[in-house]
Amino acid sequence: MKIEKNYEDSLVLAVDIGGSKYIIGFVDFEGNVLYQERIEWISMDEKSIIHQMMDSLEMLCRKMPDLFKRVAVGGVTIPGFADPVTGVWEDSDFLDVHEFPICDVFRENTGIPFYADNDCNACALAEKYFGSAQDKDDFLYLTVSTGIGGALYIEGNLYYGSLGHAGEIGLFVVEENGRESDTGSVNGIVEMYASGRGLSRNYLELGGKLESEESLGGKTIAEYARKNDEIALKAIRREGMYLGRVIANSCTFADFQKVIIGGGISLMFEQYKESLLKEFQRILPERKVEIESTKLGYSGAFLGAAAVALRGKECTETSLKNGFGQKITLEIKITDCAEAFLVIDGKTLKCRNARFGEFLSAAHICESGDQLNELLQNDEIRKAVKQYSRGDQEAKDKIYDLGYKIGKGVACACVLLDPGELLVEGSLVGFKDFQTGLKDALIKETYYRGDFPFQIQFQ
């Protein structure tokens, strides 16, 4: 497949891998799609997947040799975990591929350097290179489709976390003891309520009926809402509330200037925008954050593959690892207010507008909830602190409950930021019941299930 290269007016060879199909084609360095072709998977095992993609690349080479000659670099989006430094496809929820060196294989067969990343991270890169985040150093990309995922840009870099698992906003718990996760996570996560399938279940549980036997999904519910179906309208308002709440809570950890929503449910953005913004502003009335749907449409992931390639071409291995596998500490300080700091290799990030104390701790979406600072400044809590040393059981229960509610915020911070170390400081930390409550929340509301991938220190 290797042919003589002509790098004048260089192009990117982009490969966007999905659960049921993959897309291959050419993109220029400005983000213009010159050609793309969608191909359905014939077989889904690892050997067949690689064989099909190599055949498709060879077909593309024969079909468009002039464009192929201009390719300087290639990019791949992975539906699962990928190592952006080694180019290894580590795992996937939908395809039977594990620890496969996909970039090495592509490079060996084409003579083109290839780079890979997770599809959600790639979409964030596409927004930075070609989309509406080109002038933003701090933004959150949220994909809402069959599942929910997230990617974070912090201080000008795509942020990965200590294990490369940052951005899992779909795993925020929004309903205590709620729906079982179908991916093995904890119960009540937002993915089971605000993804496409979650929206469908909400509609049916609210009393919605199907007009026919077609598969219910966001597109159908949106159409019902346009016909003034009250239950569809209520389900869509609830969609906005869920997304507004998890976005607002995410903004208490980092200084996001913008939030971009992609994925299939982003096409309904105008229908749930009002309830999303209302919930966001209820929680963070003073924060000015742009929240919008992606302008890249269905091309986001494909352009993401091109952006992954361009970043790889521009970066050294050291800069590519920025935010990936570094020593990352999440510092939580609890006094009469709650603060959170992200420390990477000893450097504390400047999150000017991030205020952890404004995190909304609530058991259910229908509850107005309590912000952490309100809890800490409550007279009942101050009274319980004074009575705690006397062994008063009611005081101990209140301190435990406070620890648990703050722990809900810490759990979300850990899921979003993927720290390698958790440090909790402050006068309340000396109370055993506070520590127990916080740990119990961490166990119940994170997918670690108590097997924490980080050290926890109370000081």
Task: Describe the structure using short key phrases.
5-stranded mixed sheet, 459 residues, alpha/beta
Detailed description of the structure:
Helix content is 38%, strand content 22%. A 5-stranded mixed β-sheet has the order 3-2-1-4-7, with helices on both faces. Strands 10-9-8-11-12 form a 5-stranded mixed β-sheet, sandwiched between helices. It has a 5-stranded mixed β-sheet with strand order 15-14-13-18-19. It has 15 helices and 19 strands. The chain is globular and about 80 Å long. The longest helix is centred in the C-terminal third of the chain and has 25 residues, at 393-417. It has helices at residues 46-63, 65-69, 102-110, 119-129, 191-194, 196-205, 218-226, 230-250, 269-283, 300-314, 317-320, 372-376, 379-388, 393-417, 432-445, and strands spanning 11-17, 21-28, 33-40, 71-78, 80-83, 88-92, 114-118, 139-144, 148-154, 157-159, 258-262, 290-293, 328-334, 338-344, 347-348, 360-361, 370-371, 421-425, 455-458. With 459 residues, the chain is an alpha/beta fold.
Structural topology:
Blueprint: E1 11-17, E2 21-28, E3 33-40, H1 46-63, H2 65-69, E4 71-78, E5 80-83, E6 88-92, H3 102-110, E7 114-118, H4 119-129, E8 139-144, E9 148-154, E10 157-159, H5 191-194, H6 196-205, H7 218-226, H8 230-250, E11 258-262, H9 269-283, E12 290-293, H10 300-314, H11 317-320, E13 328-334, E14 338-344, E15 347-348, E16 360-361, E17 370-371, H12 372-376, H13 379-388, H14 393-417, E18 421-425, H15 432-445, E19 455-458
Parallel strand pairs: 1-4, 4-7, 8-11, 11-12, 13-18, 18-19
Antiparallel strand pairs: 1-2, 2-3, 5-6, 8-9, 9-10, 13-14, 14-15, 16-17
Helix pairs in contact: 4-10, 6-8, 7-8, 8-9, 13-14, 14-15
